[in-house]
């Protein structure tokens, strides 16, 4: 599917300024605004990549993941955003609580070219309900 881009430099500058300073983001109501805001958020996440990677408990990962390279950085960010979106979809659909605790921690990593989610905590145990 093709997606049209209608970029507005002033809006991008506004979104980045709001994200950098913690100001409320107002006026993002159209699909173009949502994509522009997503782009600004993506930029901010990329610029904070080292902090995101420092937060990983590497001892929870198999040795093959501990040799991660910068070439996986962009795919890892994309996969993390996609996972956040999936979790948010569950929240909006009122299905999140069926599987997850109010807070959930996981690691998202590329494994042989495929997104892999390694849950750490915050997942409901189905055996508790039996």
Structural class call reads alpha+beta
**Oligomeric composition of the shown chains:** single chain
The strand line-up of the biggest sheet is 1-2
- Give the % helix: 40-55%
Whole-number radius of gyration? 17 Å
Report the strand count.
2
Average of pLDDT: 86
Total of helices: 5
- Molecular shape: globular
SSE order: HHHHHEE
Largest sheet: 2 strands, antiparallel
Strand content: 15-25%
Low-pLDDT stretches are none
What separation lies between the terminal Cα atoms? 44 Å
Plain-language structure description:
- The chain is of the alpha+beta class and 130 residues long.
- 46% of the residues lie in helices and 17% in strands.
- It contains 5 helices and 2 strands; from the N terminus they run αααααββ.
- It has a two-stranded antiparallel sheet.
- Strand 1 (100-111) and strand 2 (114-123) form a beta hairpin.
- Helix 1 (9-21) crosses helix 2 (31-47).
